[in-house]
Amino acid sequence: MTATTALRVGMAAGQYCIRGTHRHRVLIGKDTRLSGYMIEAALVSGFTAVGMDVTLVGPMPTPAVAMLTRSLRADLGVMISASHNPFGDNGIKLFGPDGYKLSDEVEASIEALMTDERGQSLAPPEHVGRAHRLDDAQGRYIEFAKSTFPKGLRLEGRKIVIDCAHGAAYRVAPTVLWELGADVVPLGVSPDGLNINRDCGSTATGAVRKAVVEHHADLGIALDGDADRLILIDEAGQVVDGDQLIALVTGECARAGTLQGGGAVATVMSNLGLERHLSGLGLALVRTQVGDRYVVEHMREYGYNVGGEQSGHLILSDFTTTGDGLIAALQVLAVLAQQDRPASTLCRRFEPLPQVLLNVPVPEGGAAESPAVGRTIADVEARLGKAGRVLVRRSGTQPLVRVMVEGEDEALIHSLAKTIATAIQAPAR
């Protein structure tokens, strides 16, 4: 992700979005990565060059950018972030005026426009765009987040550890919890541009687990770099993943009569135990390919209001258009406060089947999709039969192949996952 690429994204996305003669506006947020300054400036140049006005909100969670795009009637929203990746990575997420991520088809059209190097889309001098900063962006999101918490309910007497991963929510998330009455222990709130997601946040929960136990906290919340996903920690320091949160929220919504669609939407990565649990409640689990955008698309098309990913994205469409780690945590906290039960019992809704997840680096000239790898996967599937599942896919953000093997025999699935990993890393033939 270079400044040149970002400049072209700005020009192409602006060119695609401009329809009619009104002043078009784009809202840009970012997380705390050092490269965000460079990419932000390049995007501003690209958008203003084609005639769009730019509103800058600074470090803000991805879901806040989606919310503000819709609230401020912008034509486009942009989040500069690489989510849970290390600081050296970065990316650009695009949202439409309705606050939803753009479809694959629209993004492909924008990519096609990026090849225009002749400047045909440049605005005439009198129509070049302007840029300004929105000073109260954080306050707007804080009030929105608080509005999703049940009226009259407070968090007094609750001690909560929150790890913001030195990322986009490092100011807003602790503030929301404190203003709702909680005793807050903040972690990961000192970004320096280089430490985002480093040994902290939803992908490295050691620090927050330790803090929950040491502070005798009721709950720990671990966000990722752009705060669109979360992992919870119960009062005993044990991890609660996204599948358990989907089970909790889906079940509570069904009990309250607010569940839509007759179940929840998840991805192929979600544990079979979740599917069995919801089935026992008379509810369905619909699976999509990996990626929160595909979960959201299915929810919108078929009328579901609860969906998510095992990794911690939780999409609650009654409140948001995309995954929001803070707002998802608030809904769990609301149930905790209403039922006055410890998180260890409230959030353990089912016993997951053993599941092995391996991130396999792909060597130069690797054989990740070779016939030999295909035969190995087929052999593993045959050994598991109906008692397990195999999923092998390339990462969308890193040079890795992700291998998931699930089954009832833990020793067996570890062995089978390593067998697949070895085949993937074998030299191409």
Low-confidence sequence ranges = none
Query: Could you say how many structural domains there are in total?
Result: 4
- Proportion in β-strands: 15-25%
Major β-sheet strand ordering: 4-3-1-2-5
Biggest sheet record: 5 strands, mixed
* Separate helix tally: 14
The class by helix and strand makeup works out as alpha/beta
The helix content, as a percent range, equals 25-40%
State the distance separating the first and last CA atoms.
32 Å
Radius of gyration: 22 Å
CATH architecture of the largest domain: 3-Layer(aba) Sandwich
**Shape descriptor:** globular
Describe this structure in words.
The chain is of the alpha/beta class and 429 residues long. It has four domains: 133 residues, Alpha-D-Glucose-1,6-Bisphosphate, subunit A, domain 3 (Alpha-D-Glucose-1,6-Bisphosphate, Chain A, domain 3); 83 residues, Alpha-D-Glucose-1,6-Bisphosphate, subunit A, domain 3 (Alpha-D-Glucose-1,6-Bisphosphate, Chain A, domain 3, 3-Layer(aba) Sandwich); 106 residues, Alpha-D-Glucose-1,6-Bisphosphate, subunit A, domain 3 (Alpha-D-Glucose-1,6-Bisphosphate, Chain A, domain 3); 71 residues, TATA-Binding Protein. 38% of the residues lie in helices and 20% in strands. It contains 14 helices and 17 strands. A five-stranded mixed beta sheet has the order 4-3-1-2-5, with helices on both faces. Helix 2 links the parallel strand 1 and strand 2. Helix 1 runs parallel beside helix 2 and helix 1 crosses helix 4. The chain is globular and about 70 Å long. The model has no long low-confidence stretch (mean pLDDT 93).
